[in-house]
């Protein structure tokens, strides 16, 4: 199963901000419980960094002014995946790295979605349940003559 299987949820969770938007704007966006990570965009719409709730807390702990641009707060290393990647492998990677959210980028590094680990796990579990039911039906002989 590919990540593209959960693209509707990933697209709904995607929030992007220009690198010059304020920390206050980011805090407002991250106050939404469905949003766990913001993708910070460069001038050509490419992913330049990400801002998490932890990034904001670290910034605020330094008592810096809330109108600072996201460029000063963001993590510049963007760990991401393609919607064409295997969902189970991506979920395992996220679990190993303790990532709750993972930006989905296209070939031009433009954001196309935000994979939430809960959405990935739910899709994997639904797939497993579907396969289990198919196997039970096969063994029981339902639908086969």
Write up this protein:
By secondary structure, the protein is an alpha+beta fold. It has one domain: Roll (CBS-domain), CATH 3.10.580.10. The chain has helices at residues 7-13, 23-30, 53-61, 87-97, 117-140; strands spanning 16-18, 37-41, 47-52, 101-105, 111-116. Helix 4 packs across helix 5 (117-140). The longest helix has 24 residues, at 117-140. It is elongated. The protein starts with 6 loop residues before the first helix and ends in a 5-residue tail after the last helix. This is CBS domain-containing protein. InterPro entries: CBS_dom, CBS_dom_sf, Diverse_CBS-Domain.
Q: In one word, what is the shape?
A: elongated
Please list the strands of the largest sheet in the order they lie side by side: 1-2-3
Question: What is the CA-CA span between the terminal residues?
Answer: 29 Å
Mean pLDDT: 89
CATH topology: CBS-domain
CATH class: Alpha Beta
Tally the beta strands. Answer: 5
Number of domains: 1
Number of helices: 5
- Helix amount: 40-55%
CATH architecture: Roll
Look at the structure and name the CATH superfamily.
CBS-domain
Pfam families: CBS
Protein name: CBS domain-containing protein
Keywords: CBS domain
Domain CBS: 7-70, 74-132
């Amino acid at each position: 199963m590919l990540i593209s299987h959960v693209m509707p949820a990933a697209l709904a969770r995607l929030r992007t901000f220009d690198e010059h938007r304020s920390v206050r704007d980011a805090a407002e966006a991250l106050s939404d419980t469905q949003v766990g990570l913001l993708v910070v965009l460069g001038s050509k719409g490419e992913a330049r960094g990400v801002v998490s709730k932890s990034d904001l807390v670290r910034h605020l702990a330094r008592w810096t002014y809330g109108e600072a641009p996201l460029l000063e707060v963001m993590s510049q290393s963007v760990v991401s995946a393609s919607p064409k990647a295997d969902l189970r492998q991506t979920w395992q990677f996220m679990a190993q790295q303790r990532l709750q959210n993972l930006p989905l980028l296209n070939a031009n590094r433009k954001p196309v979605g935000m994979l939430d680990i809960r959405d990935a796990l739910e899709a994997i579990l639904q797939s497993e349940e579907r396969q289990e039911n198919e196997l039970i039906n096969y063994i029981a002989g339902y639908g086969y003559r």
